[in-house]
Specification:
single chain, about 220 residues, alpha/beta, Rossmann fold, Arc Repressor Mutant, subunit A, 5-stranded parallel β-sheet, 4-stranded antiparallel β-sheet, about 45% helix, about 20% strand, globular
Length: about 220
């Protein structure tokens, strides 16, 4: 059975999360001593961590960096902050996903399930040509440069990579994104594809994603 560690200083929120997750079949532990979080994680070895940004004594993003130096456990940031800057920072520091309060419980459960599923299939290094893909840190890198992708950009890229040289429909991508976001419309998908293309261009991968009108997208080998 999978274990989830909740690092949240609001006891009422933590308790609600614990009850919801236990009802979903997870083993759950709530953090009470925030001065020994790293030691607790090393001992307990959870399957996934829910980490709040605003914590007593330490900033959650700093704690995220410290955790990443010690372990690769999947981490979802749970926070009241809501901006692309916070998302990009969290992903660049090693978060696997990011959700803001107040969150939809069903969506949170879907995203926990999706992160756990992705973590099981991304333990081995992944590559696209000479580009290393590191989903846990939200980055693509070559020997000389690395770029940070947002959560949705990484989801799109991984889906295209897993279906390389094949057409991936917009509906397929929307479904994958829906499992990890509260809502994404057709225009938002177009924007994310455009941003992903721009970032790939920066590191020399121009025109690798082709649009097939009325069909979808192809990532070429």
């Amino acid at each position: 059975m999978q274990k989830i560690k909740i690092i949240e200083d609001d006891l009422s929120i933590a308790s609600e999360l614990k009850e919801m997750l236990e009802n979903a079949g997870y083993i759950v532990d709530i953090t009470e001593d925030f001065s020994t979080v790293l030691e607790q994680l090393k001992k307990q070895k959870p399957s996934l961590i829910l980490l709040d940004i605003n914590l007593p004594k330490i900033n959650g993003e700093i704690l995220l960096q410290q955790i990443r130096k010690e372990m690769n456990t999947p981490i979802i940031m749970v926070t009241s902050k809501n901006s692309e800057v916070d998302e990009v920072l969290s992903m660049s520091y090693g978060a696997d996903d990011y959700i803001t309060k107040p969150y939809n419980p069903t969506i949170l459960l879907l995203r926990i399930g999706a992160v756990l599923k992705r973590s099981n299939r991304t333990d081995k290094p992944q590559f696209y040509r000479d580009l290393e893909v590191i989903p846990q840190k939200g980055i693509l890198k070559t020997e000389k440069i690395e770029i940070v992708l947002t959560k949705n950009e990484m989801i799109i890229f991984l889906h295209l990579l897993q279906n390389i040289n094949k057409i991936v429909t917009r509906d397929e991508l929307m479904t994958d994104l829906w499992n990890n976001s509260e809502y994404i419309n057709d225009n938002a998908l177009t924007v994310n594809i455009s941003r992903l293309r721009s970032k790939l261009k920066v590191i020399g991968y121009q025109d690798v994603i082709e649009t097939r009108k009325g069909q979808g997208y192809i990532l070429y080998e």
